[in-house]
Amino acid sequence: MSLLLIYRMKKSALILLILVAFGLQAEACTNLIVGKKASADGSVICTYNCDGFGFAGSLFFSPARQHAPEEQIAIHGWGPVHEGQYVDQVDYTYNVVGFMNERQVTIVESTFDGRLELQNHDGLLDYFSLMRLALQRSSSAREAIAVMASLVEEYGYNSTGESITICDPNEAWIMEMIGKGPGRKGAVWVALRIPDDCISAHANLSRIRRFPLEKKRSYRSLSSLSLKHINRPEVECVYAADVISFAREKGFFNGKDEEFSFRDAYCPIDFENVRYADARVWSFFRHHRTDMDQYLPYINGEFDRCDSLPLWVKPDKPLTLRDVMADMRDHFEGTPLDMTSDMSAGPWQMPIRPLPMHFRTSDSVDLFRERPISTQQSGFTMVCQMHPYFMDGAGGITWFNCDDADMVAYVPLYCSLTQVPDCFRPENNQRNEFSFESAFWMNNWVANMIYPRYSLMIGDLRRAQRELEDYYIADQDSVRAAVARLTSQERRDYLTRKSLSYADRMMKRWDRLAKYLIVKYNDQVVKRENADGTFQRWGYDTPGYGQPFIDAIPAATGERYKLKEVIDRRER
């Protein structure tokens, strides 16, 4: 599947083609969200793990442009091709780096599918087209919500259910949207502002249940959503005019309006979607709240005891950037869902599992595997920071890399950059061709060496990861001091050079790490190192299996590996 944006100039023969190859898989993403009073430095933070098999991640980039009158943009989404169908262009489109624009508006998503009969393949806009149009056109989170609502109303929506995070330096919102089915233009949706002192998350399951109806703090969209209404500071909830009446029409809801739940109407829960999706949210909350184990019955499918997680919670203390990066690397460690603590983790406590998600024993017992926040099939991962008090361009940072969050170092990229680092360019990240110029393949080279012997080797990666991220984070004070003395154009040039140098530093460090690992762990032994970091010529250790795995062997193999005679090896 691909997203092809063709900018057509009606008064010129110039046609600019931008092809972004994404084989994105539904039900495969995670967003963590932190309000500005819930973060240690006052920034709004949101994250994105894009976990689709079959594509190599890269960084989307769309430079700022002034557009001619009557210019249009042709959209070819992931549904049927809509040849000859166009969206009217606006006068000016903002610079977009990844999923953040130059005004620090950030939009990320996770797919919840919901009621599949509501997908309208004839709608023009898929969710990625919708998000990118909004990023190019919006100066605030509220404006982005209005833009998306207006676009789907005018042009139609062809994706399944989506949870969309919309942030700017001052606010974080969650918007959920689903189509109206074949022949029905537009979508039903609701958007809620997350309290500044709270954290929220979604991971492929609708999270909005009841919401305030049209009173002081909400506004019901009567047609297209007007900025005049949504920009009122007291407004903290907006929704489609027919979000409830449409559910009644379809037989999804028959109670009182004030009892309406978006999730229950448009995305009914079962054990599978809760365990695979909301368990990720629960684990994130659990890192920052001490009372989250009360929701374990919900995660275990005991819906008669508990049937939901809170949409947001107030953390016990503010989250740092490093906290959120660690959250993105979570495998349920220290919980009843811990993926490193049973025999399925193998002898080296491997926290990843192969697909499929479901499997069956030889005696027909159906089993499943856990689905943590961090997973090996990620195409790319990002932690987006939006600062309300830093100079334009330096305040919005996308901490980005390709592949699994657990196995990469996050590289800071500024929202005003004018050139994509070579290692993140689409042409250097081809899914079927290894390249030393590709961040995706360099990261996968290292990760796939470590996965099978995870607990033995992960410490070496952690040292390289900390080395880079410590350097990047510490360097931000000097960056902000430097840009304060520069003109607007000088700032953009400086921050672009910084972004390029950060990415180059990561690639060189990962090249050294890959070569170090293959030498140190060659042929299942561990070479000993000298004090200066060089390897001893002959010295090596044989780590063997961990004791829990050794203890599990007799149960699985019976007498096969039992020594018939105890041999004193010291006498041999």
Topology, pairings included?
Layout: E1 2-8, E2 15-21, E3 29-34, E4 44-50, E5 61-62, E6 65-66, E7 72-76, E8 86-88, E9 92-93, E10 96-97, E11 100-101, E12 106-113, H1 127-137, H2 141-155, E13 161-167, E14 172-179, E15 187-193, E16 199-202, E17 218-221, H3 227-230, E18 237-240, H4 243-250, H5 262-266, H6 271-288, H7 296-299, E19 312-313, H8 321-327, E20 358-360, E21 366-368, E22 380-386, E23 396-402, E24 411-414, H9 439-450, H10 454-483, H11 488-520, E25 526-529, E26 535-541, H12 547-557
Parallel strand pairs: 17-18
Antiparallel strand pairs: 1-2, 1-7, 3-4, 3-16, 4-22, 5-10, 6-9, 7-8, 10-11, 12-13, 13-14, 14-15, 15-18, 16-19, 20-21, 22-23, 23-24, 25-26
Can you walk through the features of this model?
With 572 residues, this protein is an alpha+beta fold. Among the domains are: 2-34 and 57-272, no CATH class; 390-526, no CATH class. The chain has helices at residues 127-137, 141-155, 227-230, 243-250, 262-266, 271-288, 296-299, 321-327, 439-450, 454-483, 488-520, 547-557, and strands spanning 2-8, 15-21, 29-34, 44-50, 61-62, 65-66, 72-76, 86-88, 92-93, 96-97, 100-101, 106-113, 161-167, 172-179, 187-193, 199-202, 218-221, 237-240, 312-313, 358-360, 366-368, 380-386, 396-402, 411-414, 526-529, 535-541. It has a seven-stranded antiparallel beta sheet with strand order 19-16-3-4-22-23-24. Strands 12-13-14-15-18-17 form a six-stranded mixed beta sheet, covered by helices on one side. Helix 9 packs parallel to helix 11 and helix 10 packs antiparallel against helix 11 (488-520). The longest helix is centred in the last third of the chain and has 33 residues, at 488-520. It is globular, with a radius of gyration of 25 Å. The N and C termini lie far apart (63 Å).
